[in-house]
Design goal:
Blueprint (H helix, E strand, L loop, with lengths): L1 E6 L11 H4 L4 H14 L3 E6 L3 H11 L5 E5 L8 H10 L3 E5 L21 E4 L4 H16 L4
Parallel strand pairs: 1-2, 1-3, 3-4, 4-5
Helix pairs in contact: 3-4
Bound molecules: 1,3,4-trihydroxy-5-OXO-cyclohexanecarboxylic acid.
The site of 1,3,4-trihydroxy-5-OXO-cyclohexanecarboxylic acid has 10 residues, from loops.
Amino acid sequence: MKILFLNGPNLNLLGQREPEVYGRTTLADIEAKVRERAARFNAEIDFRQSNLEGELVGWIQQAKGTFDVIVINAAAYTHTSIALRDAIAGVGVPTIEIHLSNVHAREEFRHKSLIAPVCCGQITGFGQKSYILALEASVYVNETKNTR
Ligand code: DQA
């Protein structure tokens, strides 16, 4: 199976950015751990980051027919982007929403996710482990074809 991991704005700064919230692990460290674990599941991984909404939309559109599952940490776009929501809904590739921090325990503006209703589920609050949990969830979603 092929899984596309997408990371939104400012996640390139992980490790230096608000470490009390997001920890000291870099995105490259997380990618390495995801790749290591993916090998056990025989899953092929593509791992990308962009600060640009349109680039993320383009990658979601291109995922159709190539990837079995998308895992997305849309970062701040989670709370603002109708474009990402429409891309996920339009493309129909099963998508899992993830966050490092528990968005529901933070500021009120983070409680609302515009993409949650078009995702299979949400994993939030487990730090870098959210990515590993999402990998396991991807295998489950792919096996059960439990799309929405
Ligand atoms: C985040 C949570 C978002 O609210 C925030 O804008 C981020 C990171 C997380 O992984 O905890 O940039 O998606």
